[in-house]
UniProtKB/TrEMBL annotation:
GO CC terms: plasma membrane
InterPro entries (UniProt xref): Cell_Envelope_Assoc (IPR051599), DUF218 (IPR003848), Rossmann-like_a/b/a_fold (IPR014729)
Keywords of the record: Membrane, Transmembrane, Transmembrane helix
Any Pfam family hit: DUF218
UniProt domain DUF218: residue ranges: 63-194
Name the UniProt record assigns to this protein: DUF218 domain-containing protein
Gene3D superfamilies referenced in this protein's UniProt entry, alphabetically: HUPs
Transmembrane segments: 31-51
Length: 229
């Protein structure tokens, strides 16, 4: 005799196993899609903030104007560095701060540091040497900001207007504030960093990645930041 229907042994049917597998695959796809969406929102939001802060010119009075270094050649600033120094010169002449701090070390084989060449450029423009402090250390943004923070602390001052390229502003400001400085930005509006739409997009993309890396690790993503400038 055949067993009654209700007395059959329990045996999961292939359709149930297939349904479980399909459900798992569906949830896996949803998790992946959610992760991708979060990544897109994070990257897009950070890129927007890089662009937004790049447009800010905050020239309220401060203790110092800080010029982030860039490449120099035998004491002559590169076009990128010169644009930053010219912005610092204008801010000083407007009375934004009583002194300028130039910062940046030197690459192997260089005779001058970025900070020293920046100071020479500004004194040649007529700013008194006594109003310029050269912090001759720092091979990337984070090391430079740490060196500036230490110098300002030794002088008993705490507020700074940071001068760099527009796209570099948010990361520089974030690092400065993390050291305890009161910092805001007034970036240059001239030079190679802002010449073309391509250079602007490249700068935003680079700084978006570098800022996300810093926020994740608290290390600099510069290799070094002066490379090619």
């Amino acid at each position: 005799m055949k067993p009654a229907f209700g007395n059959r042994p329990h045996d999961p049917s292939p359709s149930r196993a297939g349904g479980f597998g399909a459900g798992l695959a569906r949830w896996t796809r949803r998790l992946i899609a959610g992760a991708v969406l979060m990544a897109v929102v994070l990257v897009g939001g950070t890129a927007f903030r890089v662009w937004q802060v790049a447009r800010i010119d905050d020239t309220r009075p401060a203790d110092a104007i800080v010029v982030l270094g860039a490449a120099q050649y035998s004491g002559t600033p590169s076009s990128v560095f010169e644009a930053r120094l010219e912005q610092a010169y204008k801010l000083y002449k407007r009375g934004v701060a009583p002194q300028i701090i130039t910062v940046g070390g030197k690459q192997e084989g260089d005779e001058y540091t970025e900070a020293a060449s920046g100071k020479m450029y500004l004194t040649d423009r007529g700013i008194p040497s006594s109003a310029i402090t050269a912090v001759e250390t720092g091979s990337d943004t984070l090391l430079s900001i740490d060196a500036v923070s230490a110098e300002m602390s030794s002088q008993g001052i705490n507020s700074a207007v940071l001068v760099s390229d527009p796209w570099h502003s948010l990361r520089t400001r974030t690092m400065a504030r993390d050291t305890g400085l009161q910092a805001w930005t007034a970036p240059t509006r001239q030079g190679p960093a802002v010449f073309t739409r391509e250079s602007q997009l490249h700068g935003i993309a680079r700084e978006t990645g570098a800022l996300l890396w810093y926020q994740l690790t608290h290390f600099s993503a510069d290799f070094p930041y002066t490379a090619g400038q």
